[in-house]
């Protein structure tokens, strides 16, 4: 006789929700494959390694990024040999897979390698292109001096193999082989890929409509972000993550970083983010540096950069020429992130040559009209300025007040990056966090006071046709605790930030939450485990927010309806509000809140209330006593005690040892010793039954 208590066994009911997926093959050469990025001004695609024997041969070969001859993208790598004489030798340049990256191919994994090449005028020299995997060579183009008629393409599937020391090795090598004496020839390469059959998937949006962006990510390893599955659709900042993710996802926005009104001493920024050439300014053009009333150079505390006189025609022209050179070296992107757009400088310090705020304001506008117009005309590109300094600078007037000055430069602006929206965390890692005051009716016509929720909320919502990057900054939980605060208080700020983003987001909004001090891998903070609030299943928004018990000018309780819930935000620092729930909903902590309940919404807090299914499963009979060879039937009753319908509910009942499934109604399938059904729909308050029959062996 077999006695068993099946109710004590594990039964599960999982609720599936369909989300749009984007699928892309992993290209391990995505960061360099278009051969158009020359951040370091070497005339050579970043990431290429060069070897030559004899070493002097390197001096006889000219490298350049050629924007005239290209297979795809905006440029190719040109390699030109021309000499009157010299010793025989060889030169190679290689592009390899970084096996220290987060996501790399395994030994034996096949990769599809593609490359486009073009060759002209080889005499006394030859070229070849090969793949080296482990200790083996696979020739895409055997050694030849043949000229091509335009671009040729080659592809081959090659497995990743191990080197003799057991480590993985995989790279593409392009080589020149030169005879003694005179030699010449030009080779171009482009469109290099190493594509894995493995695929990376990501959601098109989070389950509340939110899309994510990265702002100056410290981690250069883009495979972290590919593997995260998060809907990252914009990268603002430095090179490798933006380049690589843009190659994987064609609709991803990448905006390289440049600086607006300062010249930057760090070598990383020279000739790139620094549009003014720090070395030249300090050596030859110190009259370009702005000075205070005492004649001292005006220097920013962060990065120690010096303000320059953007009102001077030659300074503006230097900015334009530097920007043109930079964009031609980094793939001619459509957008450029412009940092530290300080339109209120003279509010904080007396500046020689600019006695009034209006005079400095005209210098700012003049810079945009010169540089922005050229940028749009030559590249078809626009700026995404960091509006943290003065979000009100770009706002149209309300209630009879005039437009702010920045409205005149909107043609050159493709969107806004609003740093420190909702919260501002210090970079020094002290765990300090602050949320700004809202604003009052008396200052609505003055765009100059900048630290206000109202101006940021307005800027985030009043230009829905433009990209809006919301960038709340938060302390890391470790820094916040070290500063003597509780994790509960840190969570309050997290919820305030996420509720705020849900209140203001529109179709062109992206959210880039960053933490100070920044971590090498920001995705650690964007995970479901770290920030579950990001993944609240609200569905899409229904219309814009409404303001209860107040108005936009003075503030009030911001409320926004979503398909499956309600978002409530109180941005005021000086009062609380009440809110009555219109229906049964769960709060962020999973507590069921009943219709008609009135809640107090404290100052600077955000709340999300959402409907969700809550499926329970009961098995009958609870215990049975049967002899071998006998059969017994069971009934599974499922109920939805939640506030929303459950879709694609997976119900699984494990079979006890010695039982064999012989029938079910409706038909179930057997998976790993479990009887499994998928119930398409279980409405809120609904229930149903399932039956199955087993034989005792």
Strand portion: 35-45%
Count of separate structural domains: 4
Helix segment tally = 9
Task: Please state the second-level CATH architecture of the largest domain.
Answer: Alpha-Beta Barrel
Q: Fraction of residues in helices?
A: 10-25%
Low-confidence stretches: 1-9
What is the makeup of the main sheet? Answer: 6 strands, antiparallel
Structural class: mainly beta
According to CATH, the fold-level topology of the largest domain is TIM Barrel
Q: Judging from the principal axes of the Cα atoms, what is the shape? A: flat
C-alpha end-to-end distance:
10 Å
Which value, in Å, is the CA radius of gyration?
31 Å
Describe the structure.
- By secondary structure, this protein is mainly β.
- The chain has 4 domains: 2-18 and 615-696, Immunoglobulin-like (Sandwich), CATH 2.60.40; 25-201, Jelly Rolls (Sandwich), CATH 2.60.120.260; 206-338 and 346-385 and 401-434 and 457-535, TIM Barrel (Alpha-Beta Barrel); 546-610, Golgi alpha-mannosidase II (Immunoglobulin-like, Sandwich), CATH 2.60.40.
- The strands form 13 sheets. Strands 3, 5, 6, 8, 11 and 14 form a 6-stranded antiparallel beta sheet that branches.
- β33 (585-586) and β34 (592-593) form a beta hairpin.
- Mean pLDDT is 91; it is low at 1-9.
Summary tags:
697 residues, Jelly Rolls, 9 helices, flat, TIM Barrel, mainly beta, Immunoglobulin-like, 6-stranded antiparallel sheet
